[in-house]
Amino acid sequence: MSVLVYTESENGKFKKAALEVVSYAKAIADQMGTSVTAVAINADNAESLGHYGASKVLSITDDTLNSFNAKKHAAAVEHAAKNESANVVVLSSSADSKYLAPLLAVGLEAGYVSNVVEAPSSTSPFTVKRTAFTNKAFANTEIHTDVKIVGLSNNSFGVVESGGTATVEAFSPELPNSGVAIESVDKATDKVSIADAEIVVSGGRGLKGPENWGMVEELADVLGAATACSKPVSDLGWRPHSEHVGQTGKPVASNLYIAIGISGAIQHLAGINASKVKVVVNTDPEAPFFKAADYGVVGDAFEVVPTLIEKLKAFKAQNA
């Protein structure tokens, strides 16, 4: 019996979410008196997962898995779970894992709980705390199936180094023909991804046009942050839809979320509410975002942001 964890990687490198789910799986394994086995697909340095709590890594090398395919990836993880007799499977809350989880739950006849934010409060019965009502409340949920699948909310548990080592074993599961052929994938390779970002700088219609986005990108560059936008901005074509965050876009659970010129529609707030610290810059003191923000600046973004960039650059120069 072991805790199995699916680790996501891109271009051979593990994502931050992968290290977080391994850390979380280690916490569960310690409670249950067992060990952690990780599934790594086309990833380099698989043994490095030992630093975060994995005792064993099942390394899958298969070119057909270079692009995410829910059916094939679910089959790979299902085979691994059965091979290891795992009774707990841990996934992240990425879009890919949320596609994979229901298929995996059917294959393993498992109960699945998403958006989990803490280690289990009990393993008998198996009880986890999850967010509910778009992060406005918490629910303590029990899973009574023999196999349990836990979807960890991004940036909720943190990356914890345990200093262990992991053995790496080659694993070659039988994969189904999904019937889907991926011809090409276009990705932005020169930016911090929203999913992995510790800090997100987001802009709204208050920036007045795409020609003014330079200061958002400059602030993000200084902070090492990802750039994002509100739905109206992506709808207007000012920014790509891949940067749209909110309930109808990408969810954000960063340590710091900076909203510039965003009023704070309920759908936007629902998608970024899991961020730990929220800062808003807006000329309208009655903007809804101020009620949700931890810090607010009532002012013109075209004056506030350049000044903030200048101060941050000076701070970094003094502390380099």
Could you explain the architecture of this structure?
This protein is of the alpha/beta class and 320 residues long. The protein has two domains: 2-170, HUPs (Rossmann fold, 3-Layer(aba) Sandwich); 199-318, 3-Layer(aba) Sandwich (Rossmann fold), CATH 3.40.50.1220. The protein contains eight helices and 17 strands. The mean pLDDT is 93.
Secondary-structure topology with pairs:
Elements: E1 2-7, E2 9-10, E3 13-14, H1 16-32, E4 35-41, E5 56-60, H2 70-83, E6 88-91, H3 95-108, E7 111-116, E8 122-123, E9 126-132, E10 137-143, E11 148-152, E12 167-170, E13 199-203, H4 214-223, E14 226-229, H5 231-235, E15 256-260, H6 266-272, E16 277-282, H7 289-292, E17 295-298, H8 301-318
Parallel strand pairs: 1-4, 1-6, 4-5, 5-12, 6-11, 7-11, 13-14, 13-15, 15-16, 16-17
Antiparallel strand pairs: 2-3, 8-9, 9-10
Keywords, separated by commas or semicolons:
28% helix, seven-stranded parallel β-sheet, alpha/beta, 320 residues, five-stranded parallel β-sheet, Rossmann fold, elongated
Give a quick summary of the entry:
This protein has helices at about 15-30, 70-85, 95-110, 215-225, 230-235, 265-270, 290, 300-320, and strands at about 1-5, 10, 15, 35-40, 55-60, 90, 110-115, 120-125, 125-130, 135-145, 150, 165-170, 200-205, 225-230, 255-260, 275-280, 295-300. The chain is α/β, with parallel strands linked by helices and about 325 residues long.
